[in-house]
Structure formats: C-alpha cells, structure tokens
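Supplementary notes for students who missed Thursday's class. We covered one full example, reproduced here. Read the sequence, then the structure, then the short commentary at the end.
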Amino acid sequence: MEPIRIAVEGASDVAVVRRALESRSLTVAERGIFVMGGKPKLDPKIRSYNQAAALAPWLVLRDGDNDHGGCPVALRESKLPRTDQHPAFCFRIAVRSVEAWLLADHDTFASHFSVVKTRIPRAPEESADPKRALIDLCRSSSRSDVRRALVPTQRSGSRVGPEYVSWISEYARDSWRPDVAAENAPSLRGMLTALDKLIATGTWR
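Structure (token representation):
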C-alpha cells in the first residue's frame, strides 16, 4: 500500500495517526505530514487535500470539540460533504478530541503516566473536555516528572505543561494500543474500520 499523506491540527496528533496506521501495517509519507497549528488553519485546506487525493491517499484528522453542537456527522458534512469526497480521501473527526482516544486505553495510560486507573473516564468521548481530563489526571500522578512535564503552572497561561507534546507523542508511539482504545472510543473505532476498508478495497468509501 502506498504511504499515506496526513494533515492534523497539532504535533502530538502525528504520533497518534502514525500509530493507528502502523496497527494496520500502513505507513505515513515522510514528506506528506502537515501539522496545521489548529482548526482555523486546517479547515480551509480540507478541500484542497481532498483534491490532492487524486494523486495519493490522504487522511485528515480533526478534533470535534463541541463544534456543531458536538455532532461529528454535521461537522464533517459542513467541511466536506460525503458526496464531494474523493475515494482516496479520508476525513475523520475525533470525538471530542484525540486525547479521548489516548485515555481510552485505560491500562497503558495509567501505567505510562502513573495515575490511578479507576480515575480514568470509562467513556472518555463523553467527557466535555478530554484534554482537561488528561491534564487533571496527570496532576494527580505519583511521579513528579509527569506533573512537571504535563501540568501547566498558574503563571504560564497555557492549558498544558511545557513538555506536553513530547510526552504525549512518546506515549502514543510506545505504549498506546489503538485496537484496545477503540473499544472505549467509537470515533477511533470508525477510523480503524476505514483503514481496514482501505486495505481490503483500495478506497476509504
């Protein structure tokens, strides 16, 4: 299978997508990784990436957050209706964010970040703010290096700690199990199903 071009909101999303693809023995095109720096920069490019799928397969991952009332179907249709989607283009919405997918592998998250497993949301996609839930869990970590790396100081004005991207990327790359997480994250399960269809039929649709 030809390497896949990807576009995501943030740097840590790359590791998540790469790991999901690796779980299906698929690879990312090394010169085809586009980190857009947020939804306002990603959204205007979606139709261009859809057109580029005429030349190579593409996957775009966007956080759903609470856009369109939290309805991923309505959000997806507003950005690129299915009738306009190229067969080699895949546009997926993480409900509500990629952090929900990472939390959904309860055992490895608890072990990697030294947090109490029973405090992890059982259905993280139902959390109003999975990123905040993740940070709050790390705030309770028994390891000081986890707290320093991922929890922001009051003076920083940031939502995340100074080493958030590197730690989350490491977790996604080395510990996170997409198929296990998919049992607790339906939108992730939908993306893995799309990958299986690509392998079986050569098309995302």
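Commentary. The CA atoms of residues 149 and 167 lie 8 Å apart. The longest helix spans residues 186-201. If anything here is unclear, bring it to office hours.
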